[in-house]
């Protein structure tokens, strides 16, 4: 049955526990040592999680690296808003051991980079922040995301992000 599904174009792993959205198709997948799969779709990367698989939208993947048989993923959490901008904080990296990664690491790289419309690093006091415009999968337009360095003045970053987001919406102001 698995061969017939793949022959007909369904790349969903047989034991995949996620619930794909209507119109969401599996582009590629790879088994993870210890159970589950990394599953690439146009909307994000599905990862093994407690209670089943969960999808991380491409716009919420802060970093992804492949080395020595290990795929390391750093997810970003939306912690607050600053006007139309979203302030992010990185979650602790999660590592997945992959025996045969195939094209999944490259697919993740291409999709994460493809979600980025522009990026700018701004030094702020003793720290700094990344300002990144990203496409959100399944939505029109883009969102301004701000990822301050740990220890950077949060109020100052929020004020700058709010002003930047307003200028993106109304560039003449």
Tag the structure with descriptive keywords:
globular; seven-stranded mixed sheet; four-stranded antiparallel sheet; 3 helices; alpha+beta; 173 residues
What does this protein structure show overall?
The chain is of the alpha+beta class and 173 residues long. The protein has helices at residues 2-7, 104-115, 154-169; strands spanning 26-31, 37-41, 44-49, 52-57, 61-67, 70-82, 85-90, 94-97, 116-124, 127-135, 142-148. The strands form two sheets. Strands 5, 6, 7, 8, 9, 10 and 11 form a seven-stranded mixed sheet that branches. A four-stranded antiparallel sheet has the order 1-2-3-4, with helices on one face. It is globular, with a radius of gyration of 18 Å. The mean pLDDT is 90.
Largest sheet: 7 strands, mixed
Which assembly state applies to the chains in this document? single chain
Q: Separation of termini?
A: 60 Å
The radius of gyration over CA amounts to 18 Å
Low-confidence stretches: none
**Total helix count?**
3
Shape by Cα distribution: globular
Order of helices and strands: HEEEEEEEEHEEEH
The average pLDDT value, as a whole number, equals 90
Q: What amount of the residues lies in strands?
A: over 45%
Q: Estimate the helix proportion, in percent.
A: 10-25%
Strand segment count = 11
């Amino acid at each position: 049955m698995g061969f017939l599904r793949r022959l007909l174009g369904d790349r969903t792993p047989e034991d995949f526990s996620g619930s794909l959205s209507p119109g969401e198709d599996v582009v590629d997948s790879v088994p993870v040592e210890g159970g589950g799969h990394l599953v690439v779709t146009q909307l994000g990367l599905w990862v093994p999680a407690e209670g089943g698989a969960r999808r991380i939208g491409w716009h919420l993947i802060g970093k992804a690296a492949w080395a020595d048989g290990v795929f390391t993923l750093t997810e970003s959490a939306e912690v607050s808003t600053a006007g139309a901008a979203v302030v992010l904080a990185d979650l602790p990296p999660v590592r997945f051991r992959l025996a045969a990664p195939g094209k999944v690491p490259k697919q993740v790289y291409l999709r994460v980079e493809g979600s980025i419309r522009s990026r700018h690093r701004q030094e702020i006091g003793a720290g700094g922040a990344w300002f990144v415009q990203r496409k959100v999968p399944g939505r029109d337009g883009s969102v301004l995301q701000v990822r301050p360095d740990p220890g950077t003045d949060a109020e100052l970053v929020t004020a700058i992000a709010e002003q930047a987001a307003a200028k993106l919406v109304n560039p003449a102001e």
